[in-house]
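Quick sanity check, BNR-4 repeat-containing protein:
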Amino acid sequence: MPFSRPTNLDVGSEPLLASVQYRAEVPYSGLWYGNLGYYQGPAATFPSNMQPMALYDATSNKTFFVWANGYSPAWATIGAYNHATGEIVDVNRVMDLTDTDGHRNPTIHIDSAGYIYVFAAAKNSPIWIKKSNAPRDITAWSWSPSIPGNCTYSQPHALAAGEITVFHRTGPDYSWSYRRSTNGGASWGPEVRVVSPANPVVDGVYAQTASRSGTVHIVWTVLDSTTQLRKNFWYAKSAGGVAWTKADGTALTLPIDARTGGELIFNSGADQVNTQDIQIDSAGNPIILISHGQNPGAWHWKLVKRAAGTWQAYSVGAVGDRQFDNGGLILDSDTQYRALLPTGAGIAGQDGGNIEEWLSTDAGLTWALNRTLTADPLNHNHVKVAQNGQPGFRAFWSYGNPSIASPTIVKFLDEVRGVDALRPGNPFKRYVLPTLNGVALPEQTLTAAEPVTVVLSNSGIVGTP
């Protein structure tokens, strides 16, 4: 493809001894993970049950975000996006993980004093915790006591001043529980079972939680281990995590029976389901993004919310082909919602695809494809929306080849400048450095470009991808 030189090279009668170097910072690496073909691919932000992985802090005007990098064994890694400068500042290694299991991916929490916590577990292990040594500083960390037990899928919340509540799946019976710290993670209280299967030999719980103003909402599905099918969605809520109710205030007794004790909000019928995302509107109502379908077959995205005293499911219109095509939900306001979904064409038959933005301007009742955010040859997946996200860094996800275990990268959405890979400094900055007869010409910055190899000859400058 032709390469337009960014500056005129006036060589006059001199011999042509010119070169142009293209330079961009190397993207940060991301984890690749697979489970016997059940799901596989770029997984630095895997899975949907791990929340939050990014959050905005108004005091520092930064978004802090965590992921698992692509080394083996992997690291829990943290970065910070400075909204004032539009740059990625301070990327640091928080803790070494013991392997490349995506279930060890980290989650993040920041307390009222500004201390940052990073949590990492695995399939049925204690939840390891590191706490920043100083408020809003990601350069130095110390170990905090682990949350004991057979835990998976950490989901931290601030439900009351001075407290940290971490929800997680609990083995060996695959319940959903929480533990609470009232002293900045120095110790953890007893385990509280919230949802438990009546028959743990057969059933297991997969849940997501979201909170606002001290009220936590939990949505779960039940995996029938004899068929490996996830079915239906149930719901419960609690102010502070102590007393639990249905949406209408009907009291529930802990532990809630996974199939019969909660509030059934979506009957999947013959379909399987997968959790996607939960956000809370300004009135404290949960807005739930789900997918359902058959393997193999089509998977449909729906928005589930309560209206006129009943739970309703509204079709987004997006269709994927895999159970573990995972997207995210952004609430711009109480009436404008956006779903970022990997429903664009990519490597067919594999998890993920290209990212499409689906838009609703009537609080989720109707949807339309708004724009295509990526058009890349490989697949994007596992979109994570920043908690309290702001323009500049609203969501991030994993990108790579789902077919072959290989290095992946992490991409993010800047709503002003578009989508790009996480890179040191300004992630959108690209340079060309021309040199003529051994003299460096002024470095020039490109606003957007793809990497090219540049060849010069007497006939001009030619670039090839």
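Posting the structure with no commentary besides this: DSSP finds no helices and 39 strands in the chain.
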